[in-house]
Design goal:
alpha/beta, Rossmann fold, six-stranded mixed sheet, 6 strands, 31% helix, globular
């Protein structure tokens, strides 16, 4: 079974306000970015089976707007994604049902690019680009060669970085 992992950095958010970082909403530009990114991801992967979404406001808003152009069959808001590092997200992915073919994670930097770099099996130009971090409203698309439970360092191939023009 072919498996695909899509790691999304949320769209452009407003600066931190009185309510704190977790409650930052998307900026107007971010709302536009998120809608366009959903369509671009759909063109690459088609429908998504499961989405794991950080509980931060900007990620839940990004996810909602992504789904206007991308079919997502199931989703979970995972509060722990807000503070999670690459290894913690990897542990969540290793628990995915083995029958699941496409998973989307909507999270934060530097975790999304760090996890993509950790999983990627080749040191190429794309790896170099992602290792420096990814901009808002971008998605790292990886093809997996193992079941979810066996996902680990260098067990996936980063095939593309899907971006929305700034």
């Amino acid at each position: 079974m072919a498996r695909t992992l899509v790691l999304v950095r949320h769209a452009k958010a407003e600066p931190e306000g009185d309510l704190g970082d977790a409650m930052r909403p998307l900026a107007a530009k971010g709302r536009t970015q998120a809608g366009a990114l959903g369509e671009r991801i759909d063109a690459v992967t088609g429908a998504v089976d499961v989405a794991l979404v950080s509980g931060a406001l900007r990620t839940t808003e990004t996810f909602k707007l992504l789904t206007q152009g991308l079919t997502v069959r199931e989703h979970e808001i995972r509060e722990e994604l807000y503070q999670a590092g690459p290894r913690q997200v990897l542990a969540m992915l290793q628990e995915i049902d083995p029958r699941t073919s496409t998973v989307l994670v909507v999270g934060h930097e530097p975790t999304m690019s760090g996890l993509a770099s950790l999983l990627h099996d080749t040191r190429d130009d794309l790896a170099q680009q992602v290792s420096l971090g990814v901009p808002t409203a971008s998605a790292c698309v990886l093809d997996l060669s193992t079941p979810w439970a066996e996902l680990d360092r260098s067990t996936a191939h980063l095939t593309r970085l899907v971006r929305v023009a700034d």
